[in-house]
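#lab-general

N.A. 3:47 PM
ok so I finally got the sequence cleaned up, no stray characters, all 181 residues accounted for. can someone with queue access submit it? mine expired

B.Y. 3:52 PM
send it over

N.A. 3:53 PM
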Amino acid sequence: MRNLGIYIAGVLCMFLIMSCDNEYTLQKYFVDHQNDTDFVSVDVPSSLLNKDGMNLNAEEQEALNSIHKVNLLILPFKEEKKDKFEKERTDIAKILSTETYETLIRFGSNDTKIAVKSIAKDENVNEIIVFVTDFTKGLGVVRILGDNMRSEKIVKLVRSAEEGRLDFGAFKDIADSITIE
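B.Y. 4:20 PM
back already:
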């Protein structure tokens, strides 16, 4: 009887170990690199966005209100650290190529490449990722975190940003305060 108990416990442990998610996620990547001095890491709560000063319709306002936080991770390009830049670019691209992340759009020109991806459950988006690579300036990953963001409303919000109706003053202030050697 004791052997049966040990056997069952062993099988349960095996299933528990096998069920653990060993996938390296973008969130883990951010945590692993937030104290790396080559990177610039910034967390921006949605409260820093000037929501009142924006000319948004109800759907755009709802989309903006569904955003809770924005995480930025930037690796400026430095010729002497070109190998690290290439390694980190490849690592991020590998993470984002898994089926966890759905590609919404890709675009770019010359040396700049931009990919916008999302993590969604049904119609609700919980995370939007913007991955920018510029082989002369550096790379950046932006994680837009929220609850039950709707993809169609986020698209409308992006369009309003293109039209200049969103106030990104908080991000400009943050960017201006970052000194890159």
